[in-house]
Here is the input.
Amino acid sequence: MSSVSKTIPISSPYHTHKTTSNYAKKSHNRFIFFKQPRRTCLLHSTVCVSPSFTNTTHSVTQNQNAKINKFCEMGDLRNAIELLTKSKSYELGLNSYCSVLQLCAEKKSLEDGKRVHSVIISNGISVDEALGAKLVFMYVNCGDLVQGRKIFDKIMNDKVFLWNLLMSEYAKIGNFRESVSLFKKMQKLGVVGNCYTFTCVLKCFAALGKVKECKRVHGYVLKLGFGSNTAVVNSLIAAYFKFGGVESAHNLFDELSEPDVVSWNSMINGCVVNGFSGNGLEIFIQMLILGVEVDLTTLVSVLVACANIGNLSLGRALHGFGVKACFSEEVVFSNTLLDMYSKCGNLNGATEVFVKMGDTTIVSWTSIIAAYVREGLYSDAIGLFDEMQSKGVRPDIYTVTSIVHACACSSSLDKGRDVHSYVIKNGMGSNLPVTNALINMYAKCGSVEEARLVFSKIPVKDIVSWNTMIGGYSQNLLPNEALELFLDMQKQFKPDDITMACVLPACAGLAALDKGREIHGHILRRGYFSDLHVACALVDMYAKCGLLVLAQLLFDMIPKKDLISWTVMIAGYGMHGFGNEAISTFNEMRIAGIEPDESSFSAILNACSHSGLLNEGWKFFNSMRNECGVEPKLEHYACVVDLLARMGNLSKAYKFIESMPIKPDTTIWGVLLSGCRIHHDVKLAEKVAEHIFELEPDNTRYYVVLANVYAEAEKWEEVKKLRKRMQKRGFKQNPGCSWIEVGGKFNIFVAGNSKHPQAKKIDVLLSKLTMQMQNEDYSSMFRYVLINEDDMEKEMIQCGHSEKSAMAFGILNLPPGRTVRVSKNRRVCGDCHEMGKFMSKTTKMEIVLRDSNRFHHFKDGLCSCRDAFIAAMAGFDESRESASSIGCFLDSKFHFCQCLPLIMRMDS
DNA sequence: GTGTTTATCC
Here is the structure.
């Protein structure tokens, strides 16, 4: 780096055009810049055309042949062919045909070549080795590989150069198999290869992923004495890098007596491709120190290295370097440069390069589109994509992948579908990056069915396909599907760190602690904890499975915590009711120099809600915009309304909602409605409810809340009216359900269903405990009279007390000292909440109950949710009012997945 | 020799 800036005065790359040529001359004595030499014709120098004059009339023949040769020498193909065609067969020597064919080949004129060939045929010339070779060369060089091969097979030439020609031609079109099979045939016939043969065959074996064959060729090459041939060793270096043999490649390079620019480039590129960009840069600097010539390839590789490690300053220097070396007109240079700026986070630089480009290719467009996507400017990226197409540039797989990603990130489902049909129409449907991006797009846009459809149609899936689909299920709150797919995947693939990060949220969603622990073991064995994504997902999983202490322990083990890790921990404390711990963690984060974002403010405000910390909540809310420049969203306003309403500041909460700069949704009004219920404000409740019914007339849950408000005020007429209004809408609710994992097996208790094998034992225990509770006057906690059961639909009122049964099952089946961990898909009912406390006191067992909103730790007759809230709500179960009152009223993203665990046995 | 796909939090 320093050597670059010492020798080259770096000014802005954009202002160097005028002085370019002068500067290039000046720097010539230190660095030699050159563009790649044009591929010279190999055959021109190696083919000896035997001058065989077998025909009669010496002077005429000589005359015609000499004229043709003269035309050929001057490159006048038209006249050469004209003369050839006009001449009589006996006037022409083989030499003339060869010369004309050679010129056709050089001019890449297949039409003319074919004409010469037909003249040869009609003249009845027998094609000898030399003429045959020329014909093959002409056809191959003019792009007709098939015809060339046909003639080659007829003449069976033993000249190496023809074999090399065909091999390299097949390699060029990507038919490495054919190239390799020619090599094998050649060996069978005893044709000894030369350096061109081996460079080509190494390339082919490397491309085919044949490690063993490459090593065999390596040995063969040494035996034949090509071990010090720079070109051959260069191919060996490239081959070893291809298989990750970084050390072998280095050894080969070190032993090279005369490394050329290709050797250096191979080393740099090999390092960069294998993830050692830093080493690549070091080698480049070595090159500069030694004064080795630097070419376009070198610059391109080094720019990629800069992009990989985000070294913008070196990238800029190389920009100037390249401009001075006259590479600015090279599309490849500009494309790489563009991408470097983008990957180093400098969109302006990337855009400037793009705008100033003379010629652009599909790569340029893809790079600039990817640059916008990288910056989160999705609609601009989509706009560029459309502009590109309107200019007649057809998107390829790379472009499509990038734009599908943009659709995924901006939830542009319709555009995504458009691109999908383009993919199908253009036969890109079998490209894995494309299909994987499509799966991701559908999943991110919430259309899991379409995602699954694309996934199912892939015949050979890679690990990205599996990870994407598993993650898609997790994100769409389908943890059972995610875990099921995770099991399927393991039949074919070893999960990697990304798989872990994709599947852990599913464990968290189901509170599947045993499965989570199993995955944790996997993570430890494979050393995945060092990955931040994995570590955060693990902390989150343990927090959501109720093991807050373990979550905290793991969190402390994360060496470099980022915003997400802090947010996970803050949210973890919050959902367990540790508001003060959440606050101190939040403060610690800020001291660590990490600026909070929307999500971390959600986490801390929710934590305040769960712990009823009104003043603190206000403080955080105000600091959002004022100190941190984060614009509050609906979820943040909802937390403040929750805090105000819970504390009885109902009119203040109402005014707060009215003053909101964004339109309040039903959640916000619903939170206030719940507050009205707790504080028995019928009038305000009616007013608030009308706002809700206007916004969401079909959401019956708020009718239920209002019905409870009326019932508690004994306004039975109003309850009746409301019930009629509700019946018109219809009322449906999923069953309440609780589950407990014992010995890796899920035991599910559905409300009102007593089909569990241990139902009798559970009933006996619960009856016994209920009796004890009544004796100890626990029932006095139930202050409210329930709405008359006959008045309301039965299923609406029935709680079924599934959590009670699950807790009882845990007590009966777990050894003493173990914590009973129960999860519920809805809010805990007040009755069961009291039972939980009582159980923890009489059995001396700790019970952790996760409801749809938060955790309740029952210990020694107390609950972590603090019973201040219980007094206001006791006796009301969640089936009558789902935005109930333990903890906060909120139904935000903060809530747990409300799915039931369908997989009964999780052991794989 | 340049460009593309998967993950953690609220």
